[in-house]
Amino acid sequence: MNTNIKEALRLAEVLFDGFDLVERLLDTDDNPSDILAAVRGVVGALRAGIERKQSPVITQSKIDEMLDDLLTTQKAQRAKADEELRKMHEKPEEPQKL
Amino acid sequence: MISMTRPMTRPIVTIVLAFVLFACGASAREKTIHATYVATVTAQKGFQAFEKQHEANIVASSRETGYEAGKAALAAYREKSDRVTELFAGVWRALAAAAVLNEDPKAFANLVEAWTLLQQALRDLSGGKLP
């Protein structure tokens, strides 16, 4: 797996653990309710944002899209390589004799 | 051609891995499916970039070797590359099945097996340049 993706997934795990810890701490009774609400809001928004980023909904249409991209890109790239090969070895036309 | 070293080991590893994945909670299975999805998208983009550059290199080197040799080199490369394309298609189908049949351990086993084969084929094709 790509190192950046591995790192991103690891970071997301660490953040989730952090959120759980903050939520557990917030469950204690000795914090003012307005601060609790504010912090809960921030934590909730961050968690939702990460979940959206980390867990794209996998649908059949997304998979079909990727398969289509695989085949059409390959076809286009191959056609281009064939064309470049042909052009490279094309003999220049001889000038017409008058 | 895909290396088939240790043919008995791979199915055992696959079954164990599938069992571990199934034994994990639903959240862990979902994370695995999503991680595989992201990894497959990344691998496909890498493969497409590699293929484009590799074919351009073949065309460029045909200046020395000639048109027929260039054409033959492209055909030989594409024969190997087609196998990778088939394996990508296999992974996408397995991924779709695993995403739908989230509780089915067989769907996970198929996904892990398809991904293992694809990874090996990518390494063989690129001489270890692709992950």
In short:
The complex is a heterodimer of chains A (98) and B (131). With 98 residues, chain A is mostly helical.
Describe this protein's structure.
The complex is a heterodimer of chains A (98) and B (131). With 98 residues, chain A is mainly alpha-helical. Chain A contains three helices and no strands. In chain A, helix 1 runs antiparallel to helix 2 (33-54). The termini of chain A are far apart. The mean pLDDT of chain A is 72. Chain B is mostly helical and 131 residues long. Chain B has helices at 9-23, 26-65, 67-100, 105-126. Chain B is built from four helices and no strands. Helix content of chain B is 85%, strand content 0%. Chain B is elongated. Chain A binds chain B through residues 1-2, 5, 9, 54-56, 58, 60, 63, 66-67, 69-71, 73-74, 77-78, 81-82, 84-86, 88-89, and chain B through 30-31, 33-35, 37-44, 46, 48, 51-52, 55-56, 58-59, 62-63, 66-67, 70-71, 74, 78, 81, 85, 88-89, 92-93, 95-96, 99, 131.
The count of strands of chain B amounts to 0
Uncertain segments of chain B of ≥5 residues (pLDDT<50)?
1-13
SSE series of chain A: HHH
Largest sheet of chain A: none
Biggest sheet details of chain B:
none
Structure annotation, total helices of chain A: 3
The structural class of chain A is mainly alpha
* Proportion of residues in extended strands of chain B: under 5%
Share in β-strands of chain A: under 5%
Q: From the structure provided, what is the oligomeric state, counting identical versus distinct chains?
A: heterodimer
Fraction in helix of chain B: over 70%
Q: What spatial form of chain B do the alpha-carbon principal axes imply?
A: elongated
Tally of DSSP β-strands of chain A: 0
What is the average of the pLDDT values of chain A?
Answer: 72
